[in-house]
Design brief:
Strand content: 5-15%
Structural class: alpha/beta
Helix content: 25-40%
Distance between the termini: 71 Å
Order of helices and strands: EHEEEHHHHEEHHEHHEHHEHEHEEHHHEH
Number of strands: 13
């Protein structure tokens, strides 16, 4: 029989006066109401009034199902009916901290206008054939809804058309690695299911509707992909098997490490129950948590389960590298070196690469030490092409720190939005490389191909088809350079 538990901080001593109401309202349930001034507990037959307790004294398993409630709350939240006045009338904001769904309210209310715009766009969007009509935009109403990250529609942002025309001009496609001597150069993008990439007519043919169809089509166009979803959620062995089955033998997956494994914040709501329950109760409804909030034994288990989930990729020879992307505050210190050592210890002999996002790692004084450290740990260094002149900017330096793989990761160069807090995240990546910018990397690719058996080129500017277009254009330039 379930035991329902509630924690609250009322402005007045009301537990004794209201307890009988809850007995009459929920006579067949076992429940406890905890407050700092007094508690009421009902076992189905007897009501007990006990002294108050603090929140940290609430039994550890009291809110083990709150993640289900938050999932339900987020799924049923209707942005078109948002009314903060009514919300405050029902429950003043000073009490929100005690609600399981409170960690979601700020994000849901902030995103409500964009979600409403998306609903309007989907409701009033022209027929599916309209994106192929070059004069379609002229027939749209003058106040067409804005582009939003979810519900984005290509009709309202025609920049993808020129990008698709550039991609269509490139033949053949690069569904197999390019051979530069004895080196296999694989080209791909970071993720194949970005909402703006899935929009009708942008990249996938209309018949590619299922996840299987999309991955099979993607693998016919490009020879590798970087899996970014594993940064946000723990992967599963079953999903890895499906990826293996849906791609040709030469196809490669580089897989991004989960946020907890590289010191990034993550929302407790995105964690599996076994992991979330290791958190102190006060943090289970927090906006974000970090690695240090968990016991070392639990983080060991995160690593074990993460690697176990990727084992089908490794066994099939389709795992390129686990990509450890560290945050901007991961600076060149002894502590950071210790964390890199710790990561290698947990990884064992799994192939892995490191992307750094703080320029001092490659200063004139520290660059040799950085590369020596990565070599000693068998970590590949991820060369970065991104917006210049910022704290997180890295010089476009290519360095081979392992004997088998070099990675170049291209983020686009949109300076104005790179470190900004964008309401629409994809705005950060709205950038299409021009030919000379791609060609600037050809000498480094050639140099790496003379030393290593594999090179991966990953385009991470995920906006519409910009990354896929630049990927096939880079393949064309490599072929023309032979």
């Amino acid at each position: 029989v379930g035991h329902f538990v509630a924690w609250f901080e009322p402005a007045h001593r009301v537990v004794e006066r209201t307890a009988e109401f809850f007995v009459e309202r929920f006579p067949s349930m076992r429940w406890s109401i905890f407050t700092p001034d007094g508690c009421a507990q009902w076992d189905g037959g007897e009501l007990r009034l006990t002294p108050g307790i603090e929140r940290h004294q609430v039994p550890a398993d009291a809110d083990s199902l709150e993640y289900l409630w938050r999932t339900y709350y987020a799924g049923t939240f209707n942005p078109a009916r948002l009314n903060r006045t009514a919300m405050l009338a029902e429950m003043p904001a000073r009490y929100w901290k005690n609600l399981p769904e409170s960690s979601l309210i700020a994000e849901l209310t902030r995103d409500a206008p964009a979600r409403v715009s998306a609903m309007i766009a989907q409701t009033f969007a022209p027929p599916a054939t309209l994106p192929d009509d070059l004069e379609a935009r002229e027939s749209l109403p003058p106040t067409a809804p804005p582009v939003v990250e979810q519900g984005w529609h290509p009709v309202y942002d025609p920049g993808w058309r020129a990008s698709r025309e550039r991609a269509d001009a490139v033949r053949p496609r690069f569904g197999a690695p390019l051979q530069l001597g004895s080196c296999a150069v694989s080209i791909g993008v970071a993720g194949w299911t970005d909402p703006t990439l899935l929009a009708d007519g942008v990249f996938y043919p209309r018949e590619a509707r299922s996840p299987e169809d999309r991955l099979r089509y993607y693998a016919s166009q490009l020879s590798m992909v970087e899996v970014d979803a594993t940064y946000y959620a723990m992967p599963s062995e079953e999903t890895s098997r499906r990826w293996v089955d849906r791609t040709p033998g030469h196809f490669t997956f580089d897989v991004k490490a989960h946020a907890l494994l590289t010191g990034h914040p993550t929302s407790p709501a995105r964690l599996p129950p076994w992991l979330r329950e290791d958190l102190p109760i006060r943090l289970r409804a927090a906006r974000n948590v970090y690695t240090h909030h968990f016991s070392r034994e639990v983080i060991d288990e995160v690593w074990r389960r993460y690697l176990g989930a990727l084992s089908p990729l490794r066994e099939a020879g389709k795992l390129g590298a686990i990509m450890l992307q560290y945050p901007r505050w991961f600076t060149p210190t002894r502590e950071s070196a210790t964390l890199l050592n710790d990561a290698r210890e947990r990884l064992g002999d799994w192939p892995a690469s490191v992307e750094l996002r703080y320029g001092d790692w490659l200063s004139d004084r520290l660059a040799p030490r950085t590369f020596r450290l990565l070599r000693s740990l068998s970590f590949g260094y991820v060369a970065v092409d991104g917006p210049p002149g910022m704290e997180s900017s890295m010089p476009p330096t290519m360095e081979m720190t392992t004997a088998d793989l070099a990675i170049i990761r291209l983020h686009g160069r949109r300076v104005s939005t790179w470190e900004a807090k964008n309401d629409i995240v994809t705005e950060r990546y709205r950038y299409l490389y021009e030919g000379e910018q791609l060609e600037a990397w050809l000498p480094e690719i050639r140099r790496a191909s003379l030393q290593l058996p594999r090179v991966h080129l990953i385009f991470n500017h995920n906006f519409a088809n910009y990354a896929t277009t630049n990927a096939v254009e880079m393949g064309e330039r490599i072929l023309n350079s032979l």
